[in-house]
Amino acid sequence: MANITVLGAGAWGTAFGQVLADAGNDVTMWAIEPGIVEAIQAEHRNPVRLPSVDKLPDNMHATGDRAEAVAHADVVVVAIAAQYARGALEQFNGLLPDEALVVSLMKGIEKNTGKRMDEVVEEALDLPTNRFLAVSGPNLSKQIAAREPAATVVGCTDIDNARAFAKMCTTDYFKAFITADIIGLELCGSLKNVVALAVGMSHGAGYGENTAAMIETRGLTEIKEVGTAAGALPETFYGLAGVGDLIATCGSPLSRNYTFGYNLGKGMSVDEATKASNGVAEGVATAGAVVALGEQYHVDTPLAKAVTRVLNDGISFDQMIAEMFPKNITVE
Ligand SMILES: NC(=O)C1=CN([C@@H]2O[C@H](COP(=O)(O)OP(=O)(O)OC[C@H]3O[C@@H](n4cnc5c(N)ncnc54)[C@H](OP(=O)(O)O)[C@@H]3O)[C@@H](O)[C@H]2O)C=CC1
Ligand SMILES: O=C(CO)COP(=O)(O)O
Predict the structure, then answer these.
(1) Which of 48, 63, 280 to mutate to test the pocket of ligand 1 (most atoms within 8 A of CB)?
(2) Residue 271: what pLDDT?
(3) DSSP string of 32-68, one letter each residue
(4) Ligand 2: which of 240, 256, 277 to mutate, judged by most atoms within 8 Å of the beta carbon?
(5) How far apart are CA 17 and CA 61, in angstroms?
(6) What is the ipTM of this complex?
(7) What pLDDT, in 10s, does the model give residues 300-322?
């Protein structure tokens, strides 16, 4: 198969690295933390970010050296926390082989620029659009690391590249579908994290499934409206990467976004919830960017606005609901 390098040995980077290794590829993990590199290389484990896996496959290696990591890569997969991706990738600019494909697993919007990860990756690496791919779907890392059956969507403007990478990440337990709708894929993955924060808050505040369903339904509409205004295909939002990922992320305490929201709903401050989080909750930085995207495209974003009010102004969950659903609107 292929030589594939994964940049970022977090929970999903490591679990997806295992999928790629199970599919028969030779996988090199690059991480900034020397302790993680050492543990993967010496013990075939990532005790910091993915402790549930006792032994990673033998065809998974690790290095902390940037040039060595990517020198022979056919594909470079990026799994770095979204707000740090640009800075981290700029240090790889000029090191990648000329024809290498670059695949983003990230689900976030850059806070300072409002840019999607396809834009950030292409700018940071001077990468042509046809060599950028995104992977997004209902993919809670711990369950995929346990090899439970799951599926994802691989996107690329060059559908042959999407098809080629989908083959490289298909195993008996992990299936990949393809699309050319990069904008849809990026916005589904990033924006559902904001919805998961709100649903987590609802459960943390003590409410049940009706409240969660009300938020999820509003969230899906909001994601679709912002996304289609930005150029995405509407059908992407009703597929695996859209409603599929919304169901998984809003329904599981394994989601860092859901859990972050749950802790806020129970009364923690943003600082306390950040300290309690086991990995990055991308929705926290992305919420404000969604509001800005809404303003840019003249689409109302009551859910994202209400979530930013909780994050920035510390309003209660009940007040958030009142702001999301003013008395004079009808909600579908
Ligand atoms: N976990 C999941 O279930 C899924 C996650 N995703 C998305 O994938 C992305 C990564 O998630 P995940 O792996 O779970 O997150 P984690 O929080 O587990 O890991 C984040 C990764 O980013 C790295 N990182 C942070 N800052 C820097 C930096 N300045 N330079 C280099 N590396 C840095 C971390 O390195 P270090 O460990 O050394 O701090 C770590 O490898 C996110 O955008 C997330 O939304 C998508 C689908 C599923
Ligand atoms: O995107 C995910 C599942 O598809 C993971 O969600 P979290 O980043 O909230 O853990």
Answers:
(1) 280
(2) 97
(3) S-HHHHHHHHHHS--TTT-TT-S---TTEEEES-HHH
(4) 256
(5) 10
(6) 0.97
(7) 999 999 999 999 999 999 999 99
H or E element in which residue 316 lies: none
Task: Compute the distance from residue 92 Cα to the ligand 1 centre, in Å.
Answer: 17
| Cβ(286)–Cβ(109) below 8 Å | yes
Structure-token match 């290389």, residue found? 41
Ligand 1 atom at minimal distance to the Cα of residue 13:
13
47-64 pLDDT, tens digit each = 999 999 999 999 999 999
Instruction: List where CATH 1.10.1040.10 sits in the chain.
Output: 189-324
Domain 189-324 - what CATH class? Answer: mainly alpha
Residues with CB under 6 A from ligand 2: 107, 138-140, 193, 196, 245, 248-249, 255-257, 282
- Look up residue 207 and give its two tokens: 């409410």
pLDDT of residue 308: 98
Q: Which atom of ligand 2 is nearest to the CA of 257?
A: 9
| Domain 3-180, architecture per CATH | 3-Layer(aba) Sandwich (3.40)
112 Cα to the center of ligand 2, angstroms? 22
Tokens 């894929």: give the residue. 185
Q: Where in the chain is the domain with CATH 3.40.50.720?
A: 3-180
Alpha-carbon span 323 to 276, nearest angstrom: 27
Q: Does the C-beta of 141 come closer than 6 Å to ligand 1?
A: yes
Its sign, for the CA torsion 179, 168, 139, 133, is negative
Taken as a whole, the chain contains a residue count of 332
d(CA 157, CA 31): 28
- Which residues are catalytically annotated? 192
Give the bridge partners for 102, in sequence order.
Answer: 76, 132
